Amino acid sequence: MKRNVFGMTGTALCAASLAIGLGGCQGVTGPAATAGAAALAQQPAHAVSDADITDAWFYLLGRLAVLRQQQLDFERDGFRWNEVVHRKPGGVEWANPNLDVVYSEAWISVGDNNCVLLDLPRIEGRYYTWQMLDEWGETILNINERTFPQHPHGRYALCLRGSHVEIPADALRVDLPVRTVRALARVEMGEHPEKAMQLQHEIKLAPIGAADPEPLIRVPLFSNAKLPRAEAFDYAPAILAGAPDGNPGMDEVRRKVRAVAALVQSGEAGRRRVDDVIGQTALPLFAQRIRTLGPVGNGWIRPAVFGTYGSDYASRSVVDLIGIWANTAAEVTYFGMTHLDGGATYLQTFPKGALPQSTAHYFWSVAAVDSVRYKVIPNSLGRYVLNRESRLQTNPDGSLTLAFGPHKPDGVPESNWLPTQAGEHYTLTWRLYGALPTATGAAYYPPPLINVARQ
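Above: the chain's sequence. Below: its structure in token form.
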């Protein structure tokens, strides 16, 4: 029996996806078949296995998540090519953002006849980076004092590799492997967020020559609770013909995408079969994949890959859905704990000699997001993150106890409590920016959560 990328066979129950909040047992309505459907119809649809359908759907899903966000950026938030958008603290709408930083964002288009100038101010004493990703959610490059120690600030010319565009003498040329880039600047707020906001507004973009971007591929603005099923393959021709996937080993899964798209376009029976396989097998496997992104210690998942994924397109798609724009391990270390009970009270205690800040050169934080949209959980305190600016109070013995629950537990200072909502499941995301050697090894995990009560 053929196995898919998850190493599993058979059909899982749809309830597995519902268990962590993925209401994927119903599809969304897609448009008519795209222009390339006739060519795809020539593929040998009869040879498509259930495992092929699952693999192809996982491959497409990450690209669809990026396209969804790109469409929201341009049509909801007013983005324009090669112009930077400065966000207020907490002002981004995508999944699982970092609440310790202010973001500036842009969609960049470069080509044979144009480049884009980037100006970064001098930033000292706080974390910052200018991250650039391709259209599949793969990090291409970070610009900061660690990656460009001889040129940590000033002017850069972002250009397509191999292009011949005249650039100013004071600009450092940075060659990009793709024509379309999603860029994010992160500037740590720290104790003086007003200074961080001042610095972010000094980040500027200026085009050299006219941009000629590819037309936007419009996709349904699906929700994480109702992911696209067979209709995802209506967009396969445009996706495969569009943004290149530079990772190795993708030829086989792209062949599967073409074959499944042909099956979808072959008629109602083919579309129904693809839809059923996604609903009964792929969606539950997606739910399971969230819990198996990497090894687990103390109940925390340490993702095996993030930011760059190699041939692991399944993990890429999961991260694009639950934490889009993830950066690389050179910048940040992530841990996650999923499917926590919002009505329970959990305590987490760090020994005196291993407090959170001892693990990070820059900063650490833990944030709670819901288990469907991966957005912050509203609460009466308006508190969505615990970090080194939270004025945390240590215990008499020097240890530190954090609390997560709908009500503050007795004996825990309010400053150490992150509120949750009873009746909802949620995920905790732990971040270490500039993780120190004590936390970069495979043996390190944050302390476990102890369920002390349900309130």
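The first helix runs from residue 15 to 18.
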